[in-house]
Each structure stands twice: as C-alpha cells, then as structure tokens.
Amino acid sequence: MSAPNKSYDPVEVEALKPEEIERMRDEALAAFAAAGDLDALHEAKIAHTGPTSPLALANREIGALPPHAKAEAGKRVGQARGAVNKSLAARQAELEAERDARVLVEEAVDVTLPYDRTPSGARHPLTTLSERIEDIFTAMGYEVAEGPEAETEWLNFDALNIAADHPARGEHDTFFVKGAERTGGEAAESGVVLRTHTSPVQVRSMLDREPPLYVICPGRVYRTDDLDATHTPVFHQVELLAVDEGLTMADLKGTLDHMVRALFGGEGMKTRLRPNFFPFTEPSAEMDMVCYVCRGESVGNPDRPCRTCSSEGWIELGGCGMVNPKVLTACGVDPGKYSGFAFGFGIERMLMFRHNVEDMRDMVEGDVRFTRPFGMEI
C-alpha cells in the first residue's frame, strides 16, 4: 500500500491556482457591474454563484486535497466567494433602489386629475319611491304582496265586479295575450291579459289567506295608452287592501292622511274624498290631497298663485273606497262579517308631484342625467 502524498501542492490543480481564482472572482464582479436590471443580475447570479458556477466547481476540488493543503485552498476560494456575494448584494440593492425610484415616477397617480370623469350611476327614482311607500305601510303592519303581470281575465276583471261589457275590457284599453292558433290560422282566445292594475294581487291575497288581511301591492301594469308627457303604456301602481271586522271609511281616511303626511311631510297635509264610482268599491271616492306647495293658501288669493295646483288648493291622487261586497263574495270572504277598504294610485304620478317632473317620458328613456340627481337613496 502506498503512503499518502503529503507533498501534493494544491496550486498544481488548475482550478485552485491563485490567478485562476482571481480571474473567476473578477469575471463575477464585472458581470454584476454590467447587469442593467434585476433580470440581468439574476442571470449573472446563477452563472457566477450557482451550483455549476466556476467558483462552486473549484470549491469541489478542495475535497480531493490532502488535509494539510485544504486550509489554504479553502481560504483562497472562500475569500473569492465572499467578495462575489458582497458585490452581488451591493449591486442588487442599487438596482432595487433604481427600480423603486422609476416606479414612483412611471406609476405615479396625479391626484389633481378630476376624480369623477366616469359618472356615477343612481337608483331609478321609481324604485326608491316605491320602496319608500312600502316602508310607510309595512311600518303600519301591512305586508307587501306580489303577483304575475300576465293575468287571467277572471282575476283582472270578473272577480273585481267589472262586467263583460265594461269599456275597460275593450282592446282600446287592455293588452290581450294571443292564444294558440286554430285550424285556418285563427287565434283562439287565451283568457289572459297583461294586468291593467295591481288589483288582481288583492284578489289573490284574499283567495290565499283568511282575514284579517292588510296588504300593499306595488307593481308594473299595462294600458294601451300612447307615450306622451303624461301617459305611458307601461307604468307602476301601488294599491292597498285592508279586510277586517268593523272597518269603515273613517279608517280609510285616517290611512290616507297618514300616507300623504309621510310622503310630503308636515302636519298641514290632509286628504279629502269626493264621491265617484268604481265597480270594485262601494261606496267609492276620488281622493285628493291638499297642495303640498301652497297648502291651499292660493285659493282665492290672486297675490299668491300656485302653478302646481292651479290655485285650486287640491291635487287629485287616486281612487279609493270600501270593498264591494260582491268582490268579497267572489274571493270567499263573508261580507256579513268582514268589511274592507282599498285605494290605489300611480307611482309615476306621485313622482311627478314630489319632484316636479314635467315629462313622464324622462322616466322611461334611461338617461342617467335624469336619475343621477335623485342620488343613491337606500
């Protein structure tokens, strides 16, 4: 067996020669200095400090040296690798600082620019007004009831005591849904219409549950009207129905007074009832409210004319009355035990009153300039 080669000189290993290690170190330092950005520096880092870099390969050669030669070779390679890592850290800090400074300039936000170049939207005022009305009555203990917009003629007319020859049941007032075609191309009668009011929801409520019954019925309705400043073929209604023992016109009047005070504010707001006729109520009345602008002070006062009520002091709002006993009977309610009252009005008309909207077409054209002034009331 041969003895250990104690006279082995590590300088004789090419990769461990002092000048070779200095060359590897200098190449690494030059590569780091030449890196213009962090990506280039990362590539240089892999090339000069990675597991296959020249200094890493030279470091592996130390293991083959005799014990007395390892210390000097290890010191030489360690100093070189330390210098490389120090240079790498310094260059990385420089490039990161340059990047951050550049980002501050390139991605800066000019806070002096207009913040509202993209206009904000708004909820439609018909939606907010409808919900406000619902809130008023739910606070009084009423429930919100809904129903389909395509209704049977029986629910839309017959159950409400509207006779077959009533003008409202003509095609000049009502949209009829076309039925299936018969032999020869003639369409059969479907018995279905687009509801002309939300009263069918009241009928459904009486059919579905037992009195006492207190419901409010908002929703979209359809009439064959031309679109103009005061009419639209599709509009929104809200109707109220109360059925209980002992209800009278006095209860109806008190409910109406509370509603107009809640919607228009002020203790001076009140309503009046004028006799009228509706098939589904008996007795029936037309409901007026005192003018919310002049509060009636313009009547007979030429010095203070009122454009809103034309100096009449009152504004017509909608129809109301005690539920006709025939309607109660058709819905399975005993008119000898129960009585009820109902009223209804158009939400578009109410919106015109509350906010001085002059043209109903503005409500349906979808122009954000109309809805935005009403804001985002929730």
Note the main attributes of this structure.
378 residues; seven-stranded mixed sheet; three-stranded antiparallel sheet; disordered N terminus
Report on this model:
- The protein has 378 residues and is α+β, with helices and mostly antiparallel strands.
- Helices cover 37% and strands 20% of the residues.
- It contains eleven helices and ten strands.
- Strands 1-5-6-10-9-8-7 form a seven-stranded mixed beta sheet, with helices on both faces.
- Strand 3 (176-181) and strand 4 (187-194) form a beta hairpin.
Radius of gyration: 44 Å
- Strand ordering within the main sheet: 1-5-6-10-9-8-7
Beta content: 15-25%
Q: Helix proportion of residues, in percent? A: 25-40%
Shape: elongated
Would you tell me the structural class of the helices and strands?
alpha+beta
What is the element string, with H for helices and E for strands? HHHHHEEHEEHEEHEEEHEHH
Average predicted local confidence, pLDDT: 85
Number of strands: 10
Distance between the termini: 97 Å
- Return residue spans where pLDDT drops below 50 for at least 5 consecutive residues: 1-5
Largest sheet: 7 strands, mixed
Topology summary:
Elements: H1 18-34, H2 38-49, H3 54-61, H4 67-106, H5 125-138, E1 143-144, E2 150-152, H6 153-156, E3 176-181, E4 187-194, H7 199-208, E5 213-222, E6 234-244, H8 249-264, E7 271-278, E8 281-290, E9 314-323, H9 325-330, E10 339-346, H10 347-355, H11 368-371
Parallel strand pairs: 1-5
Antiparallel strand pairs: 2-4, 3-4, 5-6, 6-10, 7-8, 8-9, 9-10
Helix pairs in contact: 1-2, 1-4, 2-4
